[in-house]
Amino acid sequence: AKKAGDLRGLHPKSPYADHADLALARFAVDTRDLDEAAKRLRTVAESSRDPELRLIAQARLARVLSEQGKHDDALKLLDVTKVGSFTPVFHEIRGDVLAAKGDVAGARQAYDAALAATASVQAQAFDREYVELKRDALPATVAAAAPAAAPSTVAPVEGTKP
Fold first, then answer.
1. How far apart are CA 57 and CA 44, in angstroms?
2. Residue 117 pLDDT > 60
3. What is the value of pTM for the model shown?
4. pLDDT at residue 154 in the model
5. d(CA 65, CA 113)
6. Residues sharing a CB contact under 8 Å with residue 17, sequence separation 6 or more, in sequence order
7. Cα-based distances in Å from 120 to 28, 116, 123, 125, 140
8. Residues 34, 50, 36, CA angle at the centre, nearest 5°?
9. Which residues contact 155 (CB under 8 A, 6 or more apart)?
10. Which of 78, 130, 134, 162 is the most buried (most CB within 10 A)?
11. Rg of the chain taking only CA atoms, in angstroms
């Protein structure tokens, strides 16, 4: 961590500093220091010269914020209009955040959008089956009304009262 800090201090715009921050953010998540992870990811998301690293950090930051219960802040990071090949991933994360927030219909819609987006972009690291599994595991949005009890058409057994 000290070496990464020195690297960030000496070469703040270096891609090596960005990668060090991403690695340290991963370590922070593993040790449940979500504030530290968010700080490191925000640094990369806001200042990296590499647009793809910014998107990776942004996606990871959204997951960390959601884990912290900051669902609305996470959703603000997941604008899918300018993310190119990251579109399916951003939709998937939106689905995860919305599901964590309790918005089942929104989560289902986001997962469907993620699956649809794989047809329009080259999503090499996208696991369709896993997203389908998450979507299908969502509770039904509207419980089917139980049909009214129909009168019994079974004849009473002889010797019993109907």
1. 6
2. yes
3. 0.80
4. 44
5. 22
6. 4, 7, 8, 11
7. 35, 8, 9, 14, 28
8. 15
9. none
10. 78
11. 24
